Please model this.
Amino acid sequence: MKLTTITQVTIDGVVQGNGGASEEDRRNGFERGGWALGKGDGSTQEFINEAYQRADAYLFGRRTYELFHASWGTLSEKDVPGWERVMRSLNSKPKYVASGTLTDPTWEGTTVLPDDLATAVRELKAKPGGELQVHGSGTLVQWLLANELVDEMTLITVPVVLGQGKRLLPDAGPDIALDLLDSRVDSNGVTIQTFRPAGRPQYPTAP
Model:
């Protein structure tokens, strides 16, 4: 399977508290949650619906897994008009969680990965299928990029600057060249860009 990450992000790189109520994620004094809710137009909603339908399996960090379980795993389709396809996919496809503390997951179809996460993810990628998708899970995405396990990275960028919150990429981390595979912008200014990691960037040398 191809490992793809799909992340909602602000102009200044924040991923914390993107959806749901503003109270969803208050870690480290964060007060500006819900910044992505309802920002995309119909074409962006359709893009997201189609993305979830492509998934053969999902890989989550523990926090995102618990947030998704509390919503998509417990509500009914009538509670999420327009997002029924997302709910069906999440509830029917295998879900894998990278966690050293989760021991008894209750969402059907969930497997907690062993401590040797790199080997476990490589084994998942070696399985036949289309996409192993990672949604949210910012800390996990950082780790996957640092360990060169990401095949494609999609950023759904909402035109807002928050000025606080956890960023997708660390202040100090690996440098990664990216090839642009697809780019689009909706009528509300939300951009969707898909990249393929392409090794290290090349830096010019002094003449």
Observations:
- Strands lie at 2-10, 55-61, 95-98, 110-112, 131-135, 152-158, 178-185, 191-197.
- Helices lie at 42-54, 62-71, 84-92, 117-125, 138-146.
- The chain has five helices and eight strands.
